[in-house]
Amino acid sequence: MDDSTQLGSSVTGGPKPLRRDMLALWGVVLFSLGYTGLIWLVGGRLEQVPHLPDQGASWYYWKLPEKTLWGQLTAWGFYLAHQFAMWGLIWYGQNRVKRYTTGLHPLNVIALAANAFFILLHLLQTHLWYDGLAQDVSIWSSQGSVIVLLIWVLLMENNRRGLFFGARLPLGQNLMRFARKYHGYFFAWAIIYTFWYHPAEALSGHLWGFFYTTLLMLQGALMFTRAHTNRYWTFTLEVVVLAHGTMVAVMQGGSMWPMFFFGFAGIFVMTQMHGLGLTRWIRGLILSAYLAAALWVYSGRGLENLHQITWIPVIDYLGVAVLAALFSFSLWLMRRLSTLRTPRSGGVE
């Protein structure tokens, strides 16, 4: 698969025209930046919204003290409309489009427009009724959905870049096909659910979160294009969580930001950088810099706490094993049900 953006020269020396799918990708980035800027620009209108006192890690602060009818109807109604619209487009793409292109399918234009509509609608809904889905569901459901998404990506990329310093888990082709076939439905749910969970507040953590979820959402709208599978672009989407997670930890005033930074950076050095075509000595240099930085930071925080940098990688890699087991069970169950539905031939006619 060609991961180039066709920005280089052609064989005859002339410049190649920029592909339409890559133009759309850059449009996705600009739209996400513009949307984040718009949230910040109008965010002052939300400063007077009342909130209940913070009640701990499981408490979501950014919701109204009491539910309102229109807040709940619009949050859930718009979310469900957005969700089913994207699931329908994914189904149509898998059953009617199927082939990848360096251009844009009409499906992509519709998906980009639909997402842009609901993205802007969410900002309007926040300023009119404020509440998102957080009034009714736990914050852990939102965070957990994104964690599973990132673990799913690690599993899907196993055969291309490996999981531990280029070494691959022995995952069968049927399992990988299952993961790729159904990833769009789960990713669409995880991203859209998380997007509508939060009101469009202009705080730094919210701004980073909306920028990231908007990128992911519009990435999904580029399904069946080469830009959708460009390894440098998909790597960028994976690694943004490093900056987002670290920044949120810093803004919350806690002392656990190194766990997030070195945890996600650990996944980069053990897994993600091995899919970028880097030479061995460059990978070794990056690994050495990572280890030196971790030792330097924790030398001032207590080397006995160095184990904290392993927490996120351990959770993610165990998550890959659990997800692979669930997929294997699902495949077995589907085969079993198919066998039970198939009538047995027997007897003499």
How would you sum up this structure, described in words?
This protein has helices at 20-42, 69-97, 106-129, 139-156, 158-161, 173-197, 204-221, 231-251, 257-270, 280-299, 311-341. It has 349 residues and is mainly alpha-helical. Helix 6 crosses helix 11.
Question: Could you give a short description of this structure?
Answer:
This protein is mainly alpha-helical.
List descriptors.
mainly alpha
Helix-strand layout with pairing:
Blueprint: H1 20-42, H2 69-97, H3 106-129, H4 139-156, H5 158-161, H6 173-197, H7 204-221, H8 231-251, H9 257-270, H10 280-299, H11 311-341
| Helix-and-strand structural type | mainly alpha
The count of β-strands is: 0
Q: Tally the helices: what do you get? A: 11
Uncertain residue segments: 1-12
What is the helical fraction, as a range of percent? Answer: 55-70%
Integer-rounded radius of gyration: 22 Å
State the major sheet.
none
